[in-house]
Amino acid sequence: MSIVQVRIExxxxxxxxxxxxxxxxxxxxxxxxxxxxxAGAPRVxxxxxxxxxxxxxxxxxxESLWKSPDESRIVHLSVHPSAWTASPxxxxxxxxxxxxxxxxxxxxxxxxxxxxxxxxxxxxSQPVTPQPSQSPNHLAYVAAKHRKALSVLMQRPLNLDDAxxxxxxxxEAIQLVERNGYTWPPILDEPYPPPEAGGVRYEVAVIDxxxxxxxxxxxxxxxxxxxxxxxxxxxxxxxxxxxxxxxPPTNTTHSQPVELPPHINALLQQMGLPHLxxxxxxxxxxxxxxxxxxxxxxxxxxxxxPLILPLVMLMLRTVLLLYFVAPARKPVFGILILVWVLxxxxxxxxxxxxxxxxxxxxxxxxxxxxxxxxxxxxxxGANPAQPNAAVPGPQPVPAPGADIxxxxxxxxxxxxxxxxxxxxxxxxxxxxxxxxxxxAAFVTLLLSTVHPAIWNRRRALLRRRExxxxxxxxxxxxxxxxxxxAQNNRRAETRRELLAQHARRPLWVQNYIARVVREDWxxxxx
Length: 526
Fold this sequence. Notes:
Order of helices and strands: EEHEEEEHHEEHHHHHHHHHHH
Domain Ubiquitin-like: 4-65
Organism: Tetrapyrgos nigripes
Shape: flat
Transmembrane segments: 307-326, 332-349
GO biological process, one term: endoplasmic reticulum unfolded protein response
Number of strands: 8
Helix content: 40-55%
Keywords: Membrane, Transmembrane, Transmembrane helix
Number of helices: 14
Radius of gyration: 43 Å
Strand content: 5-15%
Distance between the termini: 65 Å
Number of domains: 4
Strand order of the largest sheet: 2-1-5-3-4
């Protein structure tokens, strides 16, 4: 038996730590050690150990997880929020750049290995110094602060140019930041804390042709100077992306009002077109044959192709039926064909009338708008002796298709036949239907469900009701599962209520429920 170290990763709180445990221990013993070593002392029953994407049971041995002693022993820990007996590890998130206030200094670095992207360098004399994408004349001061912060994280000395640290460079950088709508962050002007031994250390790493800073040892904690450098980088990374030039002005186009020619509504009225909205000094021209003109316009609006094409197809189908069926020898078939032909003829006519009814309100609205344009100056020929003459108001317009029977309502009524009475019997009970009611329901449903839409609606209602019945039956027969006493008590209470309700039902309703549960009637038409 030997002592091994297992690395515990707690991603939720960005925290990691090492646990020393015997190599032949199991997962339960590992949880007990975690409860002793982890900040917050999570309870054992609230811990979940994850290894390679799966939860580990308490009885699994650590030897079965890592066969070779050279393998890295790393597991992930998930803790239920109610399992913490003390304050959990502090979770620090990287603050968003806020130029109005300095960002708070984090207590320690996150345990996953962070990398900081470096732009490609043009000069090899300073391999770790990032070059800003903007002109150094404007952001030289910010770029110098950026390079200084990187050198502190890499623990390398850096000699800065005096010109980049001058007051002129700082003034230009402040003006550029303020031109872009931000406030100068005062943390860039604060001095660094005195250097200390130790701390984190970053090295340059090339990944996919790009240069990054790689953290060498995630277990170490940064010094106060390095914490200050991280806060400086949180601002400089955003400031170095600011544009140095103001955006070009946007060209705006101003539209000029177009003056309409005089008597425009008169010309439109002569052409049979609707009037425009109210225009000053424009009056509709009333012609003596205005009524006949309106009749011609309305007749011209009727579309003949949607009316004639169905009639032609109906004629062809009728001729085909008459070829195979002799109406003279079989009058019943002749009557059926006649009824069908009349129905097919009426349907396109009904659709055309509905379109006309929908178009009539729009025409009347246009006429009222045209009449409203001449209220201030009445047209010539008007009777001035009647100043208080009543102006006819808009007449009520019938709803489009109001005379058309709602087919969907009829289908729903036939599909819901006797459904409410059956639901009432299932809920409140009642006497068993008599033979006459059963016969009437049988004949009605036999004839109405020939229509596919009625059959589909009826089938959906029955399936919904039988699904609810099977759910209640399964609940009454279910047993207690799990160790949660509160849930078991709720299930037992629900089961008692359903059993009491089932016992109050009449015998014929209970037989129906038993037949549904046995699945004696199954619709396999799908």
